[in-house]
Amino acid sequence: MTPPENPENRGGARLVTVPEDRAGQRLDNFLLGQLKGTPRSLVYKIVRSGQVRVNGGRVKVDRRLEGGDEVRIPPVRTGEPGATATPPRAYMDALQAAVVFEDDRLLALDKPSGVASHGGSGISFGAIETLRAARPGQTLELVHRLDRDTSGLLIVAKKRSALVELQALLREEHGIAKRYLALLTGRMPDGTMTVDAPLHVGLRQGGERHVQVNAAGKPSVSHFRVIERMGGHSYGEVRIETGRTHQIRAHARHIGHPVAGDDKYGDPEVNKRLREKAGLRRLFLHSSTLEFELDGGRTPYLLNAPLPAELTAVLDRLAGGR
């Protein structure tokens, strides 16, 4: 009887030395670059199971690497459960068509609602995996993330130098100016309402992330301003100084005006009425503007993505029912 094959012998694991220009990169993103076409869910699986080691030790997926680190990468077969060849061609074409800006070092995608920024948690491929599949041979790295249900601007770096500079700007208080458009339930007061409340990410049963205001959380600042009131609700803009998980959604709930269509932090009855009255079938939150400067302030960028047609139609229906 032939003994079962040892996974270590399937082509063998390999040791990769982290280049100096990759210092600071998260382990999961480094592995995605080494294992082209492998979905993030599978990368997470091999890290959690201890098959990936850094300098001989077990690590977590969010480990920040240093230049000179030795990463043990196991053999990964594309036929393993969870692995996927390529996204459907129509999906790749749709995301390619959603690129609203591109130069030699970055591109900006107007991400549709319902598309994850990256694969994982049962999603074989998100925006970044799909773009990589559509552009084989190009180096593409996510600069930041958007919630799956949030639409709008998502920046992808085409060069390592751009990724490093953009992520450094994200860590600065006013490095990247971010403006969102949102419909908040209820009538908010005039003027700008600033919410300075720390946010803590917790896990519910089943591993679902849930964010709430908690003194033990990370500092988080959002500014809400009403543009127009209609149908008893408040359409406005939100500017954020920090980029925490579910920040706008959690802060909006905290002030008593959840984002319309939010099935995690919102009011189910209000969402139902908005669905029936105005046809709102998604989260009404859109990343509309990003403004920043590269090259130490010498190269300004102002990126815009208009409010999607399905959200504009919701506003029209609400305005018509005043």
Q: Would you mind describing this structure in some detail?
A:
The protein is of the alpha+beta class. The protein has helices at about 25-35, 40-50, 90-95, 125-135, 160-170, 245-255, 270-280, 310-320; strands spanning about 15, 55, 55-60, 70-75, 100, 105-110, 140, 150-155, 175-185, 190-195, 200-205, 210-215, 220-230, 235-240, 285-295, 300-305. It folds into 3 domains: about 10-75, Structural Genomics Hypothetical 15.5 Kd Protein In mrcA-pckA Intergenic Region, Chain A (Roll); about 90-165, Pseudouridine synthase (2-Layer Sandwich), CATH 3.30.2350.10; about 175-320, Pseudouridine synthase. Strands 5, 6, 7, 8, 9, 10, 13, 14, 15 and 16 form a 10-stranded mixed beta sheet that branches. It has a 4-stranded antiparallel beta sheet with strand order 1-4-2-3, with no helix packed on it. The longest helix has 12 residues, at about 160-170. The N and C termini lie far apart (about 80 Å).
